[in-house]
Amino acid sequence: xxxxxxxxxxxxxxxxxxxxxxxxxxxxxxxxxxxxxxxxxxxxxxxxxxxxxxxxxxxxxxxxxxxxxxxxxxxxxxxxxxxxxxxxxxxxxxxxxxxxxxxxxxxxxxxxxxxxxxxxxxxxxxxxxxxxxxxxxxxxxxxxxxxxxxxxxxxxxxxxxxxxxxxxxxxxxxxxxxxxxxxxxxxxxxxxxxxxxxxxxxxxxxxxxxxxxxxxxxxxxxxxxxxxxxxxxxxxxxxxxxxxxxxxxxxxxxxxxxxxxxxxxxxxxxxxxxxxxxxxxxxxxxxxxxxxxxxxxxxxxxxxxxxxxxxxxxxxxxxxxxxxxxxxxxxxxxxxxxxxxxxxxxx
Length: 347
Ligand code: SF4
Hints:
By secondary structure, the chain is α/β, with parallel strands linked by helices. The chain has helices at residues 2-15, 40-57, 68-73, 75-80, 96-106, 151-155, 163-175, 200-208, 229-237, 254-259, 266-279; strands at 28-33, 62-67, 86-88, 110-112, 133-137, 139-140, 159-160, 180-184, 216-220, 244-246, 284-286. Iron/sulfur cluster binds at residues 142, 144, 146, 149, 151-152, 186-187, 223, 344-347.
């Protein structure tokens, strides 16, 4: 979702006359931030601190901060980094060129954070990173309340695009040379809830099958609670919909799922996998699992053996493996050093 938002930001700026610049030669620097991981703000303020010195030596340079952290922190960004020229939220990406212009004209920092979406962001110009594959938003926001996730408070309630609009965007992409699309939503299989059609996602997949030249259709992320047989049937019966499913499990423990306020249990998840395997025996299935969730005992018993019977899931951890808390900090730059109530994962 953030990558696609960045494509929109690039498209908007190019539309307004800006051209891409080398990293050390930019007149405008835009940060599209994420608030899912706890160290996102540390990184942002570190980067802003470095740019403050660059800005001193380059008169007229502008810095803008948008995305989820901007939506969450609002004027804190301007307080902590008063040299930032524009702060914009997740609901008003389209305002960026005007905010930069106004900041330049008034010689004053601009802040614009809307509480809800006015215009579905897919109507904004987009500069796509790839010619052959494109993201297509079908919905934004989420109506769930998973306790670990900040998405609903920053992206708002689910808003669904009309199918005709989505299919027109896909057709335009294909006309421009794309052969693959990924349908995007925080919770793709609840698509249609806003206009009262529970079968809308399956219908959309089938409609994608009628687009000539479109070779591959993928989607992310589905939610196990909303996963229905009609979607599995549509996947199996629509040749260009890939037999691929990335469906976040989050935990194999029903107690932890309850604590996470995930409204399905392991039995439901496994039932979906069985149905998928029945219709698409070679489907590629992957998942997300959160370890070290608050309240989880340091040593949980391994999940029921049935919880791990699918070859798509990793094998159970041996009981000798220490809990996540006891492990050394991860070295991956994008990992959070410890679980946080602000962690999040879509779907
Ligand atoms: S994890 Fe997914 S389903 Fe849960 S609140 Fe966040 S976006 Fe919604």
